[in-house]
Structure formats: C-alpha cells, structure tokens
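Researcher: I need the complex structure. Ligand is calcium ion. Inputs:
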Amino acid sequence: MEVIEILREASKRIYENVKDLAGTDDAAGDFGIGAGGDVSRNIDIIAEKTVLDYLKEIDFECVVLGEECGRVEISNKPKGFVIMDAIDGSANAVRGVPFFCSSLAFATENKLSSITDGVITDLSNGETYWASKNKGAFFKEEQIKVRKKDPIYKIVGINTSGASIELMNKMRPIFENHNHTRHFGANALEMAMFARGLMDIFIDLREKIRIQDIAAGYVIVKEAGGLLLDGRLNPLDADLGYDTRVSFIAAASQEILDEIMSQISK
Ligand code: IPD
Ligand code: CA
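Model: Output:
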C-alpha cells in the first residue's frame, strides 16, 4: 500500500469516528496538556487513537509525531515519520463551528522539506485534500492549483489568533487597504483552501504555529504551485521538533506576495 493511501485511509477513519462528536459536551473532555503544549480534548484523543490503532493494525513501519500523544514508535526500524494533527482547529471542533480538519503527513527525515505525502480532511463534511511529492495536489480526485488569475475579490487569509499588539500594528495596513481579510481557525484547512485557489495568500507571522499544524499543508501547497516562505521570506523549512514554532506565508504568486508584503510596516 502506498503511503498516501495509508494516510487517506487513516483520515477517513478519523472522520467516521468524530463526525457526530463535534459540538457535543463529550468532545470537550479534558485530558491534560498534550505534547504540543495545549489541553488535549476528548475529540483529539479519539482522533489520534484512531490513527495509532490503524497504523499498528497494518504494521506501518514508522515513528508517529502526534500533537497530543508525542513521539510513538510503531516500529523499531521506521521508514520515516507520520506527523499527526488528528484535529486541527480543536476550539472550532469543541464548539461545533464547522471548520476543523485532520492533518497527516509523512516525512523521510527530521525536516519539513523531507515531507513526501500529506492528507487534510475537512471533518465537517469528510472532503479530502492530498498530495504526494512530484505527483500533484488533489481535492476530491481532481487536481488542484493555486489561483494565478486575477481574482474578482482578493482574499487574504491572516492568522490573528493570539497575535501581539506589535504584530497587529505592523499588519494594520493590510486590514485598512480594503483587502478581504479572513481567519477561520484551522491553519491546515486554510492552507488546503489556499491550495485550491479559494484564497490568494495566507499569512501566519505569529511565530506560534507547530509543525503538526502545517506538515500536510506544506506538501499540498507546494504541489499546487504555491510559494511557501518563512517570516524572512526564505523557503520554509524547519526541524520536526516539539519546540519548533514557525511563521509562514503561502502565496499564489510573487506578485501578490510583493503586493501584500509591501503593506506590512517595517
Ligand atoms: C490551532 C489552529 C489555529 C491556530 C493555532 C493552532 P489546534 O491548531 O491551527 O488556526 O491559530 O495556533 O494551535 O490547536 O487546533 O490543533
Ligand atoms: Ca490539534
């Protein structure tokens, strides 16, 4: 079985197991602080267990790097890492806001740039985005590309959750310049939607995002033809560590990147 098929099947099983849970009291149960540093909710734990059980069932030779469970060695001769954010957008999932997803990626080395496969499933409806290195990005079996054409409405995704006053002040012109700014609350799904051409640029300059939240989006955005840069506008890369936090910008073209970045105060 190809790695991408394994990740797709694992995502499908997450959807089956959590689809009726979002927004219920049961979703919120508190399991203490997870490896990623946030409270693990019952819905996070159920989703992670679904993946771990499946990978064990098929004896997939890997090490899992989960946002809640931390590092789990499924095999002692691993072929690589499964980077798992079983529920991205946990706050939305717990409240029942229909914008949350699962994000599963496979990397051969301890680097973001070694990711070969990624799957993001919109858990509000089961729709899946996926990509494998050099094979393109897909949404519901159709190949997807970032939007290169001039849009009717330019949509600028910006993650402002917990952003500092300094950062908000720097970004203020973007909000003032009549861009249609959006922030939905699940970075992985926002990256997938960007890759599908529903946004023209997606910016997260908070230096807060974890590897688990962007790993699958990394390969999906790249395979859809997007530019993926760090906060200094260098190609995005990082270690797959639990302490790693990054800023990133996903842009459909150099033109929109220059246009939006020129609005950020120095
Ligand atoms: C969160 C989401 C959210 C972002 C947070 C992440 P989680 O992931 O991606 O959009 O603003 O920084 O922690 O905790 O729901 O997996
Ligand atoms: Ca999560």
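Model: Summary of the prediction. The chain has a mean pLDDT of 94.
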